Amino acid sequence: MTLSLPFLIALIGVALLFDFLNGLHDAANSIATVVSTRVLKPYQAVIWAAFFNFIAFTVFPQHIAQTIGTGIISANIVDAQVIFAALIGAIAWNVITWALGIPSSSTHALFGGLFGAGLAKAGFSGVVWSGVIKTVVAIVASPALGLVLALLLVLVVAWTSLKLTPMGVDKRFRKLQLISAALYSLGHGGSDAQKTMGIITVLLYSQGMLSGGFHVPLWVVLACQAAMALGTMSGGWRIVHTMGSKITRLTPAQGFCAETGGALTLFLAIFFGVPVSSTHTITGAIVGVGAARRLSAVRWNVASNIVIAWTVTLPAAALIGALTWWIASFF
Question: Domains of the chain: which residue ranges?
């Protein structure tokens, strides 16, 4: 179905709204640790994070955009109804979890919405199962990798800080946490903005508006990075509290380990084109640094509630996406 230009622009606007809400919803992932350790004030932290969110396109290739655009459902079944339904599924679930202060995954909300809409339209034949399996594996692997890397960093930090006083350690890592927060925000912008790039690009591709095959136009890159950065600047204060203090209390050194472990995980995911969740990644890293201190330092009841939200996200967004496609198919 060929869309009129106003309708195409409106649909792209809905995609950018999702990107904005992604930044708003996931702002806490980038700034929770640096705020909870009082290295930066909240307004300083969101500006810092938003800047590195935006410039991420200068650092990373668009591998995840390719996966989202062609690796979850077949590009041949994509049309306006599928994209609209996928975005509504993701946006609706993001708003619900944001209102409840639950750090669920925008990535897997979008994945679920896209999967549900594609399945509703074309059945199992429209699904690219290799991409689906890769993404589902990443649901488990990304927080586990973040946890392990954070634990290793805690050991390195402890070993290199043996001759320092507690005040000296605190002073050193207050400075270093600015770098780790920047690295994590860079990874967040490079990973999450690409998901909306993939959605917009496959929509343009379905309308025959891309010459030379599937590729992400520069204006799409800039629009998606800007929308995410603006969302981050708007903040996500409900989730900051959960991520920054409810799971475990953090020192600047621990915040550095959590952010760096999360950033390294995101960098690897971007390189291999795997759409992982920044929420899952940083939560795993925060649990890792808390558990390195002692297992009782982690509020496991909070962590378990977050894991339940992760488990529900994909099928809930898929159900909303499928229902939205079914309703939209009548128009």
Answer: 5-323
Tell me which residue of 165, 164, 145, 141 sits closest to 153, measured CA to CA.
145
Angle made by CA atoms 246, 91, 48, in degrees to the nearest 5: 55
From first to last of its 331 residues, the chain has per-residue pLDDT tens of: 677 888 899 999 999 998 998 888 777 666 776 777 777 777 788 888 889 999 999 999 999 999 888 889 998 898 889 999 999 998 898 888 877 777 677 788 889 999 999 999 999 999 999 989 988 888 778 888 998 999 899 889 989 888 888 888 888 888 898 899 899 999 989 998 999 999 999 999 888 888 877 889 999 999 999 999 998 887 655 555 554 445 456 788 888 898 899 999 999 999 999 888 887 788 888 888 877 766 555 555 555 666 666 678 889 999 999 999 999 888 7
Q: Name the one residue in this structure whose structure tokens are 């549900």.
A: 116
**Amino acid residing at 274:** V
pTM of the predicted model, to two decimals?
Answer: 0.84
How many whole angstroms from its chain centre is CA 279? 6
